[in-house]
Amino acid sequence: MKILQILPSLDDGGVERGTVDSNRYYVQHGHESWVISAGGKRVAEITRDGGKHVTLDVKSKNPLTALLRAWALRKVLRQIRPDIIHFRSRVPGWLTLLANAAHDLKIPTVSTMHGLNHPCFYSSVMVRADQVVCVSTAGLAFVNEHYPWVNHDKITVIPRGVDLDTFNPDNLNHQWMKAFIEEYHLEGKFVATAIGRVSALKGIDTLVRAAAIVRKQLPQLTVLIVGAPQKNQENVMEALKVLTEELELSDCVHFTGSQRNIPEIAALSDVVCSCNTKKPESFGRTVAEALAMNTPVVAAKHGGVLDIIREGEDGFFFEPGNVSALCDALMAIKQSAFHDLRTHIAENFTADLLAQKTLAIYEALLQTQRA
Length: 371
Description:
Elements: E1 2-6, H1 14-28, E2 32-37, H2 43-48, E3 52-55, H3 66-80, E4 84-87, H4 90-100, E5 109-113, E6 131-134, H5 137-146, E7 155-157, H6 174-183, E8 190-195, H7 204-217, E9 221-226, H8 234-246, E10 253-257, H9 262-268, E11 271-274, H10 285-292, E12 297-300, E13 315-318, H11 323-334, H12 342-348, H13 351-370
Parallel strand pairs: 1-2, 1-4, 2-3, 4-5, 5-6, 6-7, 8-9, 8-11, 9-10, 11-12, 12-13
Helix pairs in contact: 1-13, 3-4, 7-11, 10-12
């Protein structure tokens, strides 16, 4: 099978990581794997793993250049002639539908709704593919509520997966961990970590405010905010730093910026926190990755994390934005013992399982098209 995945870029993020993981699986199982994006630092992983990458501007939201970029994509589709096109974001989705409308193409399409974006005509492209993948039951409920006209038969829930080779407690870079612990003075601390690009939706201010309260009971508390600000949201990072200073937490709240050694950071943390407020995580990859490293989690009680976390077994929930409830959850983590959290992830949320189930959708769709 010749598979083409299309996404805006190949830099940091869960969509990008999932594309890389899927590319590797497809190649390993004898398929021809192509990826189209505007480029990025993870392109090298696509080609290293045996896939092929084409650089096109499928990222810009400029409507004035959309037709020209769709024409360029159409030209590439005619050259590649994939059996399946899998688009993973809204701009690539619209460009795909425009390019694929040519009478000599009409290639079967699959989309993955990686985010619970504001329901509108622009966002509706994600349910206009021949088959639609939701990454959680929360995603399925979102589609049913906001796009009731979509045929239920074309929607499948496939949770996103963790690369268990990368997120493996037995494959840690202990030398790097030692240096990181020394840099941020983490020895003997209770480390609560938030991982991911910093934006207004992540609710990290809730964690900072909770830290000001919890440290009175738990003086060894240290908070790590791991990630760079999302594009055009640098002001959010600055506001968090100001809040940290106002609450006199500069000695225990650390902004590490973007980091590549996420498995090591998850492993050295005592708890990983997912604090989304208004907009929930569609899945909650950082939560699943933390559990794969046997690190418990606390998470705002909405969205895709409800599929992952077993209350009291893997960690604890708190009501979104509720600082007091987050304080209670953090203290509960400190007072609890957790064992073999990785098994739950290995049985239900792996990158290989995700790719395997996605391939089954491709094959079924192709059989339907041939019938």
